[in-house]
Structure formats: C-alpha cells, structure tokens
C-alpha cells in the first residue's frame, strides 16, 4: 500500500476541521489537545434554527395550533387502526354541553361570562365532533380538513385574545 492511498489519522465527519495543538513541554505521555472547528452552517439550517427559536420563545401563544397539528396524525392513525373508535368518541362531543348546563345552573354569571362559557362550550363541542368524524371517516372525507382549519383558527384567535398581556 503506498503512502498516497493509506489514510492518515482518525476518520472525521464531513465538513469538520480539526486543529491539533502540539504536546506541551513537561507533560510526558500526555495526549495532545484536539480542537474541533465545525463548518459554517447552511442557510437552511440557519432558517430552521431561527424558526425553532421563535416558536420556543412564543410557545405559549401557539398552544392551540400545536394541539391541532398533533391531532392530525393521531386521527389518521386511529382511523387506520380502528375506524370504529370514532363511534366511541361521538358521545364525548356532548360533554361540553353538559358542562355548560351544569355551570349555568350552579354558578349563574353576568352577560360577558355567559358569552365566554357559551363560546367555550361551542368550540369544544365542534372540536370533539370533528375528532370523532375524522376518526370514523378519515381526514380527507368531505369538508373535514376545512372544518379543522376553521376550528384551529377560531381556537388560536380566542387563545390569543384571552392570554394577551395588558
């Protein structure tokens, strides 16, 4: 094997440059220091890093969006695995209306609180209805994807209105 084809030194990952500092005097048998200098990141990596930091900084503000996006693969998986589980989820869609009736009876409130309770119950009922329909019939059936978008926009808007800082 000639010296041109033989590899010299340890293998390194692509794009990583190493600089070896020679051994210092007085330290016999000590290994040399190795400084690893990574290559400059690409523009794509910089853009994804910026988006990731931005999402992390505002993570509380995008909670409804994250939950809605997480619901898409969950419903697709449930539809593929056991489509009939949507029939089991259907009675759950009535639960927010039961909560509204219970809250109105136990704790009467003023007009603004009443409107918020009605809006919350309507939003939760529509989201749970969408969940059961999407699990039963699939995400792409009829207007379910458009309904998902409308529910997500309404929930995100309400979340931002409620949690804004005064």
What is the chain-wise order of helices and strands?
Answer: EEHHHHHH
Number of distinct helices = 6
Overall 3D form? elongated
Distance N to C terminus: 75 Å
In helices, the fraction of residues equals 55-70%
| Strand order in space, largest sheet | 1-2
Report the average pLDDT across residues: 84
User: Which structural class do the helices and strands define?
Assistant: mainly alpha
Low-confidence stretches: none
Oligomer: single chain
The total beta strand count reads: 2
Q: Supply Rg.
A: 28 Å
Most strands sheet: 2 strands, antiparallel
Strand content: 5-15%
Task: Map the helices and strands.
Elements: E1 16-21, E2 33-38, H1 43-57, H2 63-81, H3 85-89, H4 95-106, H5 111-137, H6 144-162
Antiparallel strand pairs: 1-2
Helix pairs in contact: 2-5, 2-6, 4-5, 5-6
Structure description:
- With 166 residues, this protein is mainly α.
- Helix content is 58%, strand content 7%.
- It is built from six helices and two strands; from the N terminus they run ββαααααα.
- It has a two-stranded antiparallel ribbon with strand order 1-2.
- Helix 5 runs antiparallel to helix 6 (144-162).
- The mean pLDDT is 84.
């Amino acid at each position: 094997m000639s010296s041109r084809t033989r590899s010299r030194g340890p293998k390194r990952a692509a794009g990583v440059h190493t600089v070896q500092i020679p051994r210092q005097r007085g330290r016999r048998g000590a290994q040399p220091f190795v400084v690893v200098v990574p290559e400059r990141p690409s523009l794509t990596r910089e853009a994804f890093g910026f988006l990731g930091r931005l999402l992390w900084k505002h993570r509380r503000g995008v909670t409804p969006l994250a939950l809605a996006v997480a619901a898409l693969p969950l419903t697709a998986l449930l539809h593929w695995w056991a489509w009939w589980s949507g029939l089991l989820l259907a009675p759950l869609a009535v639960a927010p209306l039961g909560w509204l009736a219970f809250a109105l009876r136990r704790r009467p409130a003023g007009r603004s609180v009443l409107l918020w309770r009605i809006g919350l119950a309507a939003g939760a009922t529509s989201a749970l209805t969408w969940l059961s329909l999407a699990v039963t019939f699939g995400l792409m059936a009829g207007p379910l994807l458009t309904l998902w978008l409308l529910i997500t926009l309404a929930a995100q808007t309400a979340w931002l209105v409620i949690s804004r800082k005064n």
